[in-house]
Amino acid sequence: MIQQAITGTLIVVLGVFNQWNAYTVHELPSSILNRPDKKLSTDVVGTALDGSASQNKLRSSILDHPNKALTDVVGNNDPPLLSWHKKEQPILYEFPPVQRRLDFLHHLEKVPSFQTGVEVGVQKGILAKKSLDIWQSCTEYILVDLWGKEEGYNEPGADTTADKDQNLREARRRMKKWEASNKVKFMVTRSTDAANQLPDGHFDYIYLDARHDYCAVKEDIVSYYPKIRPGGILGGHDYIDAQYAIDRLGTVEDWSKCEDGSIHPEAVKGAVDEFRQQHGGLSVYVSNVDFPSWYIQKPY
Q1: What is the pLDDT of residue 65?
Q2: Which region among 30-34, 164-168, 191-195 has the lowest average model confidence (pLDDT)?
Q3: Nearest Cα to 290, choosing from 249, 234, 233, 260?
Q4: Smallest Cα–Cα separation from 102: which of 82, 128, 84?
Q5: Which of 46, 109, 208, 211 has its CA 20 to 30 A from that of 235?
Q6: What share of the chain is helix, strand, coil (3-state, %, to 5)?
Q7: Could you give the 3-state DSSP secondary structure of residue 295?
Q8: Burial 127-164 (b: 16+ CB within 10 A, else e)
Q9: In whole angstroms, what is the distance from residue 85 CA to residue 50 CA?
Q10: Second-level CATH architecture of 99-297
Q11: What is the Cα–Cα distance from 145 to 167, expressed in whole angstroms?
Q12: Cross-strand pairs, 3
């Protein structure tokens, strides 16, 4: 939500809606404190999207004193959202918005409590390498992929068995230095089988990018959510439905059909949203690209 004043007045960015009505929340106080000489009027202040106590208190303070200088209302102390990455218990909705999924890794690198991760759906290891190049404080990174064809499943895309074998070789080449230092471990198996071998409540961050049909995504979310510790973040790629993918990638990428033959056009987005609602309406943080990533945080 963006409230804009006429020319010469302050623009306060409270959050960003994307086309699916998911949001991220920007550093509200820093937007205000950047213009300490300006005054606010009620027509340039909106309601914080998440309704958190700290943001509502800030909004109320401003609206109660529309003619005061900003520093008189907000004060000069370090506001809570300014130190989102320094908090003992970082809150996902306070993370600044990101354009791409790699931008999110820069956020993780700033947060000392995030050091362990899992990537499900690795292919050639391109994302894994870029992630570890950025997330240098990571101490453990598990790579999960079958790197093969699944029996009874007509997988979207055109990769052959030989292609998948080559993908694994390329992934190992890209991960060579981290595997040698025991930071990276490969698990060449189905995602759900790998999850059964991983400890519960252990990982800080898990990213899902394997199969994209509704049934498989739902299964992966259910399997990996217990693996993150309280305050940890579970995310994944392509927060979209099947028709959106077909319109942009063609019918070769039809994510509506599950392994059992059932049809679920809601695909990734449907599985994520259903899980969120089943767990008390968890908020979703979404990157701002055509094929966005989604992130949810397990409550502390």
Answers
A1: 46
A2: 30-34
A3: 249
A4: 128
A5: 46
A6: 40, 15, 45
A7: strand
A8: bbbebbebbeebeebbbbbbbeeeeeeeebeeeeeeeb
A9: 18
A10: 3-Layer(aba) Sandwich (3.40)
A11: 10
A12: 12
Closest by CA to 293, choosing from 132, 164, 52, 105, is 105
Q: What is the pTM of this model?
A: 0.73
What's the rounded Cα separation, in Å, for the pair 113 and 87?
9
- 47 pLDDT higher than 80: no
Over residues 161-181, the pLDDT tens digits come to 788 899 999 999 999 999 999
Which has the closest alpha carbon to 121: 202, 221, 204, 199? 221
- Can you give the residue ranges of every domain in the chain? 2-83, 99-297
Residues 282, 276: Cα–Cα separation, whole Å = 5
CA dihedral defined by 222, 228, 229, 231, rounded to 10 degrees? Answer: -90
Q: How far apart are CA 130 and CA 119, in angstroms?
A: 12
pLDDT of residue 152: 54
What is the CA angle 238-208-116, rounded to 5? Answer: 135
